[in-house]
């Protein structure tokens, strides 16, 4: 009877995974036995944290209390959360979070320790950011703030994943040694998403583009959507893309060091989607009006191809070339983009 309950609970966790992101859930389920459950639960714990951070209906004290104690909450059997706003995307996950906690407590302690440690650092980082002074609502003022925020929400995920890969024995312990490489894996994904999500975030009253970047061209961040500001908007966008390009050498170095096929696929697919997205958003002012996404057919082709380093390098080279053909001589960042493209290509 207990065995059936266990299997039922585990199935529920993979159902949650399917609901949060279908395509990525399939990739997680392809992971080798030693890692599959640990990464599934790491993903769900992070999603739980994200659902609290994203909920604008929670009052700040309550939100910070939950974020800072989430690393303890994941050990509390029976805990769940019904205070999320009605339209919060993944609220069903927290309403039945006791299921995730039961499964988490079944994991080997070495995996529990990694997940709890990252959850502690991320929860505190998110709370620091949420309660920081956002007087002029440019929550992210400097490039340093931008990097710190992206480290909290995505770089730490890279640290945790590298620790889980090493603990599982599927990858060499050295994968967790160079924290800058692991950090860049998350930064590249998160920064690309932040550029892509300009419109969605602006409509939600959130701004993540650092004022140190856009403030060089305008004092009106929301005004970038106006047609009369198109030239300024182009310069701001290319300056943002320039900042993201810096992470490419680290990303490729990290991918190159992976040994296990299922771990490689799990890591390569999001990075390949990100470079394709970065090339798409570059010099594309649709970003200011809607959420631009790569076509489904392209995404499928990229997923199929992301199974070995030669293909991944070829895909990066192709999209960096696409980006350089879109580089506009009239853009004030033309030279710096050319230099960054040259560096990335030379590294490849
Ligand atoms: C913020 C984020 C980039 C870390 C989110 N994040 C990712 O984006 C997912 C991909 C994903 O969720 N894709 C969604 C679409 C989307 O949400 O954009 C899909 O439906 O395909 O991948 C990352 C992820 C995968 C592999 C290696 C990583 C190394 C460092 C940091 C993150 C890494 C991820 C791994 C884990 Cl364990 C948890 C979260 C993530």
Topology:
Elements lengths: L1 H19 L1 H8 L3 H22 L5 H14 L17 H5 L1 H8 L4 H23 L11 H26 L10 H18 L1 H6 L7 H4 L15 H16 L2 H9 L4 H21 L14 H10 L3 H17 L8 H14 L1
The protein binds ligand IN0.
The site of the ligand CC(C)(C)CN1C(=O)[C@@H](CC(=O)N[C@@H](CC(=O)O)C(=O)O)O[C@H](c2cccc3ccccc23)c2cc(Cl)ccc21 has 20 residues, from helix 2, helix 3, helix 8, helix 9 and helix 14.
Description:
By secondary structure, this protein is mainly alpha-helical. The protein has helices at 2-20, 22-29, 33-54, 60-73, 91-95, 97-104, 109-131, 143-168, 179-196, 198-203, 211-214, 230-245, 248-256, 261-281, 296-305, 309-325, 334-347. It binds ligand IN0. The ligand CC(C)(C)CN1C(=O)[C@@H](CC(=O)N[C@@H](CC(=O)O)C(=O)O)O[C@H](c2cccc3ccccc23)c2cc(Cl)ccc21 is lined by residues 21, 23-24, 39, 42-43, 46, 153-154, 157-158, 161, 185-186, 189-190, 193, 266-267, 270. The site of the ligand CC(C)(C)CN1C(=O)[C@@H](CC(=O)N[C@@H](CC(=O)O)C(=O)O)O[C@H](c2cccc3ccccc23)c2cc(Cl)ccc21 has 20 residues, from helix 2, helix 3, helix 8, helix 9 and helix 14.
Q: How much helicity do the residues have?
A: 55-70%
Bound molecules: the ligand CC(C)(C)CN1C(=O)[C@@H](CC(=O)N[C@@H](CC(=O)O)C(=O)O)O[C@H](c2cccc3ccccc23)c2cc(Cl)ccc21
Number of DSSP E strands? 0
Shape: globular
Mean pLDDT: 94
Structural class by helix and strand composition:
mainly alpha
Major sheet, described briefly? Answer: none
> What is the chain-wise order of helices and strands?
HHHHHHHHHHHHHHHHH
Q: What's the multimeric state?
A: single chain
> How large is the share of residues in beta strands?
under 5%
Radius of gyration in whole Å, from Cα?
20 Å
């Amino acid at each position: 009877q207990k065995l059936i309950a266990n299997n039922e609970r585990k199935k529920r966790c993979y159902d949650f995974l399917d609901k949060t992101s279908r395509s990525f859930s399939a990739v997680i389920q392809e992971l080798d036995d030693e890692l599959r459950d640990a990464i599934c639960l790491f993903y769900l714990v992070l999603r739980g944290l994200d659902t609290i951070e994203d909920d604008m209906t929670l009052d700040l004290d309550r939100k910070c209390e939950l974020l800072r104690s989430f690393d303890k909450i994941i050990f509390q059997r029976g805990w769940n959360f019904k205070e999320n706003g009605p339209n919060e995307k993944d609220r069903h996950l927290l309403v039945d979070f006791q299921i995730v906690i039961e499964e988490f407590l079944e994991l080997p302690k070495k995996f529990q320790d990694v997940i709890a440690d990252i959850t502690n650092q991320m929860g505190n980082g998110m709370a620091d950011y949420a309660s920081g002074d956002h007087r002029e609502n440019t929550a992210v003022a400097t490039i340093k703030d931008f990097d710190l925020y992206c480290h909290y929400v995505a770089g730490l995920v890279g640290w945790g994943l590298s620790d889980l890969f090493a603990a599982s024995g599927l990858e060499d312990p050295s994968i967790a040694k160079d924290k800058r490489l692991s950090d860049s894996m998350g930064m590249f994904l998160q920064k690309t998403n932040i550029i892509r999500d300009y419109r969605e975030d602006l409509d939600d009253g959130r701004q993540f583009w650092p004022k140190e970047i856009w403030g060089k061209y305008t004092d009106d961040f929301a005004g970038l959507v106006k047609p009369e500001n198109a030239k300024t908007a182009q310069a701001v966008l290319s300056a943002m893309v320039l900042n993201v390009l810096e992470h490419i050498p680290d990303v490729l170095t990290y991918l190159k060091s992976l040994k296990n096929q299922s771990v490689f696929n799990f890591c390569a697919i999001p990075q390949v989607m990100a470079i394709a997205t970065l090339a798409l958003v570059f010099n594309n002012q649709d970003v200011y009006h809607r959420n631009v996404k790569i076509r489904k057919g392209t995404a499928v082709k990229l997923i199929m191809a992301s199974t070995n380093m030669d293909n991944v390098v070829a895909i990066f080279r192709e999209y960096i070339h696409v980006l350089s053909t879109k580089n506009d001589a009239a853009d004030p960042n033309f030279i710096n983009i050319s230099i960054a493209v040259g560096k990335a290509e030379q590294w490849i």
